[in-house]
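Entry — protein

Goal — fold tokens:
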Amino acid sequence: MVISMKKFIKHNLIILGFFCCIAGFMLILIFGEKETNSISERRKLKEFPKFRVKTLQDHSYMEDLEAYLLDHFPFRDNLRSMKAYFAYDVLGQLENNDIYIANGYAGKLEYPLKENSVIKAAEKMKAIKAQYFPKAEAYYAIVPDKNYFLADKNGYPSMDYNRLKSLMQERLTDMTYIDIWDTLSIEDYYATDTHWRQECLGETVQQIGDVMGFSEYLFLDYEQKEIEEFYGVYYGQSALPLSSEPLYYLTNETIQMATQWSLEKNKIQPIYMSEEETGFDKYNIFLAGAQALQRIESPLAKTENRLIVFRDSFGSSIVPLFLEAYKEIIVIDTRYISPSLLGEYVDFETENTQILFLYNTLLLNNSSMLK
């Protein structure tokens, strides 16, 4: 009887403790202070949905309410970190959410090589050239992602990068390939982000300039400015308390005098945004982030030449370093605009125009993002 009573008390204490935890979480959720932004996920958190009969009938109210509750669940970031530590330290997993940490750098697994995707990317590039500048000399460069420097050396699977380059070269025989891989190292990338660091691209810019013939106009003496506490995309995805890092950007009189116009915003803007304008992603300081089409004018350029760059987000930080050599630069991102529309906005037949395709390996391996 004594044993039964002890079991009874024990079981009831467990049940009481469980309900106390649930009640505590509910009280915190209802009365606790609500965050409006998530630094780790670089986005606005959901607001409490307004009740309407229509949204109740089409079930969108319940969906919005569920999203709100998930965003504001008590200790949400702490629980995400606990899950990540459990995966790494207890289960012995080498990655969490495909994110791994090696040599102080966070990377995201990308494998295997999707040959069909790479081939489709090459075919899309060839189609653009055939439609708009069939006789013009065009160049292309491939930006290696961080896995090229990190994954295989640290026991993680990675794509076959040599095969990727071969697939591109086999199909883009009417374009000049610019090999920039030897100009880069893991130190040239952010520790918590996908992208390369602008202040480390001097040798890369020089290599592109040597092949395209504009290196003699480059002015590589810049003033370096800093944005503190940059948190890259892998900071949130890893769910680990990774340290922030500084983001540097390079400027000089040529860059300060240059302006950009974008199709989306339809207004003249400087080359670099202010830190306040960048939003959740400080990398957006470069050319206001990835956009469909931008026209950059550089009044202090040393030539009257013109450059058209087909790019992804890596292009945002390197394009400003070309401004000494080109009076005008057209920047196109066909993730956001169909190539069939380009003729309405861009004159591809202007004299002294050069063409450059600049894509990173992650995009080539997932080329369905290109229109």
In short: The CA atoms of residues 138 and 355 lie 5 Å apart. The mean pLDDT is 83. Residues 102-369 form one domain.
